[in-house]
Amino acid sequence: MFYRLFNYLWPVLLLTGCNGDVFIDDFLPEPKPIVLSDTEGNVSVRFNAENWDILDIESIRSDMFADARDTSGNRIGFPIENEENAVIQYGNEYLDLRIEKNSRSELNFILSENLYDEPVELDIKVGNQYTSKTLEVSLSPTQKYQIDSIVYQWDKFKLYTNNLEEMDAFTVDNTQSSTPVRWTVFPYRYSSRKIEFYCPNASWNGYEYTRYLGEPLPQIDIPDVTDGKPALQGTKARLGMECRNLETGLDKNLEVEATVEAGDRRKIIVYNQMEIYDIPYKAYTSNPRTGKTHVFSGTLSSSRPYDYFIFKQQLTDEEQ
Amino acid sequence: MNKTTLKLILPLLPLLSSAAHSHAGGKDNGARKVIHTAGIDFRPAYLFPTNSFLKGTYGTETPGKASLSGHLKYGFKFAPDTYLGKRYPHAVQGIGIGYNTFFNPSELGNPLAVYVFQTSRIASLTQRLSLDYEWNFGASFGWKKHDENNNPLNTAVGSKINAYMSLQLLLDWEVCEGTHLRAGIGASHYSNGNTNYPNSGINTMNGSIGITRHFGGGTEERRIHSAAQTFKPYISYDLIAYGATRKKGIFPENSSPIVVPGSFAIAGLNFNPMYNFSKYFRAGLSLDAQYDESANIADHIANEYLPSDPNEIRFYRPPFIEQFSVGVSARAEIVMPIFSINFGIGRNFIGKGDDLRAFYQTLALKTDITKSLFLHVGYQLYKFKDPNNLMLGIGIRFNAQGK
Prior knowledge:
The complex is a heterodimer of chains A (320) and B (403).
Chain A: H1 2-15, E1 23-24, E2 34-36, E3 42-46, E4 53-58, E5 65-70, E6 86-92, E7 95-103, E8 106-114, E9 120-127, E10 132-139, E11 146-152, E12 158-173, E13 181-185, E14 193-198, H2 207-213, E15 219-226, E16 229-238, E17 244-246, E18 256-260, E19 265-286, E20 293-314
Parallel strand pairs in A: 2-10
Antiparallel strand pairs in A: 3-8, 4-9, 5-6, 6-7, 7-8, 9-10, 11-19, 12-19, 13-18, 14-17, 14-20, 15-16, 19-20
Chain B: H1 2-23, E1 34-47, H2 52-55, E2 66-78, H3 83-87, E3 92-101, E4 109-124, E5 129-143, E6 162-176, E7 179-191, E8 202-215, E9 234-250, E10 258-276, E11 281-292, E12 315-316, E13 324-335, E14 339-350, E15 359-368, E16 373-382, E17 386-398
Antiparallel strand pairs in B: 1-2, 1-8, 2-3, 3-4, 4-5, 5-6, 6-7, 7-8, 9-10, 9-17, 10-11, 11-13, 13-14, 14-15, 15-16, 16-17
């Protein structure tokens, strides 16, 4: 009986095969946007199947680079096939994203830092020979660095005290008068202490400072000069490439009279006598979240008025 | 149908003799249980121009409006003193072979059909003349199938082996004792049951003339009116499990139709209580569950861009509910010895997607192996026109009565 039953059943059993070749597993049915930030710096994406490769990483930014390595540390190119595990370091000086593929069904995204002030968007293309899907990744700005210490190279301190800086100039024509004329000048009205942090490796506008340290930039102690020697006395200036104008402590309303005699014609020039110094500096910074460090180095230049000088120049016939 | 058909038909042939023995129970063991018959038919036919190839649009070698077939048949009927002989005194069943020519051997071939048949009387017209029917079901071998390179115009036949089915209405004239001249008209259909593409198939309308000879059996049974057997209506329950494979074509938007490579699996289960109104007829409702691996795949194309090469197309496997359907159909069944022909029309009420939200129609041949076990060979259409799938399986009949 069973033999007979089987005899009639076998055609059916033979014919009920599956057409598995035309079906592929949907490795990622509904890709969800991935957002990485300070608080969510590690995100894993689970795949439903293993039939996917990492095809490419795309970003509208042209200054990003992907460095993919296999488990032995050898550089590999895209596509990265599913069979191999890999680590991709993506970013640049200001962006550090690590993509780890430690299994055939998972991708881990680890955002170390995004020092840009806006989110960085990138697309991870995954797929196979038939289809591809895009993982949209948004990297939110992460915490900025903070200054750990400032180190000045005291032995390279250079001081210049005999420089004059012209603050004001005007001509007084008293040739038609029979009496002297007195002009009041304010030698410190426009005076300020100028501070510059010159950095040879920074860009012209010094955006590196704000990328790392945020805005407003932090204030650091700068040296003052006492008896010709530099010393930290609590004066602070904001780090950065822009020239900083500090208060001098001099009386901006100080009035000085300049007299031009009757029948005379003079050009009155107001000078500040400047104390100028240069000193190499290093600003050690670190990211409190990641522990990564960065050092800004350059030369601090300070130009501080400490006295004035009024020069009454007699004009020659040609100059008249 | 090709190999499918072959695998289907081959078990049917030995089954006939087996079934004959299992069904032909007589009172007298020494009495003859079956009466053998042999016959020969010729059937000139008209081919319906159901596709552009058959219409001759492409300038085929012969437009193919006609065909001719010759048939040799062996059959048997149950002896008058057997249970089935009394119940179905005119039913003859057997096997036949038919040689076909479409007068276009290079593009269509000259297929040979091997089939089972059954014939019986519809009505007695005179003492020697009756109106009979005959159906044939089997496989036809030796077709020249569509081939893009070697037979590109033939878009009607997609397989070397195709299913063959035919229905004839015949006038049967007993010219002398045991010898019958039969003539009539009929219709035939050849196709592969959607197991390969193309699957337009060949449909013919034919005339038929032939001679049948009964060996033994004494006087013509037509004159024998055995005592009327009493029939008490009852309910039987058919449980059928079937499977098959099928091809699938999809019609993507803004793209040419694509024939999906490979064959998809079909599996189904029918539970069909039926009221047996008479010895010839039963009807009822059927609960039909079916899994179709190809259902709704067009909604789950995986390729980012449709490939130019159909072999490159891939799909995500649809959710189960888009491949599995449950429906209810009304069934009517003509009951004859060994064979029953079942018609159904139904609608799915479980199942998602365009491929499953549809009316379906079924036609099935049930071949009794024992009183309670039968082979099931069926075909399902959607929306009265769309070929869907074969249904090849076995069935168990609960509360079967008779011998």
